[in-house]
Amino acid sequence: EKGLQKLGPGSIVCMVCGKESPSYTNAKNHFEAMHFASTGYNCADQICFYDYIEKDPSGPKAQKCKICGKVGNDRGNLRKHVESIHFPGSCVYYCKFCGKSFNAKNNMYFHISKTHR
Question: Which residue has the higher pLDDT, 101 or 88?
């Protein structure tokens, strides 16, 4: 993995900050959570969930999911709907505090608000 180096059995080091982890999974979670921006990878580069939302004639603020027709007045909530219902697991988000992974950004924010605040 880019940015990680095995030092020996049970010891993987992050090449960016030098943090040692006991397993590859922990090291990878750390690297992606703490140094995500520097990797240049962003799932939004591959999928724009807003592309699946359009205005709906049923009201002045009404928006509609192009895939299933769900209508709502909040575009952000419909983006969450598209990601979690129609593209579950297409992006992985990591908690910056503990490295736990989530298949939807909203799930990660919920975890942070309940666990780390």
Answer: 101
Q: How far apart are CA 111 and CA 19, in angstroms?
A: 24
Q: Please tell me the distance from the alpha carbon of residue 61 to that of residue 72, in angstroms, as a whole number.
A: 8
- What whole-number distance in Å separates Cα of residue 74 and Cα of residue 70? 12
User: Cα-atom radius of gyration of the chain, to the nearest Å?
Assistant: 18
- Determine contact, residues 31/96, Cβ cutoff 8 Å: no
Summarize the confidence of residues 102-106 as an average pLDDT.
81
**pTM for this model (two decimals):** 0.55
- Distance CA(117)–CA(12), nearest Å, equals 29
- DSSP strand E in the chain: where? 4-8, 11-14, 20-21, 53-55, 63-65, 71-72, 93-94, 101-102
pLDDT greater at residue 16 or residue 23 = 23
Q: Which two tokens stand for residue 106?
A: 């909203």
How many residues in the chain? 117
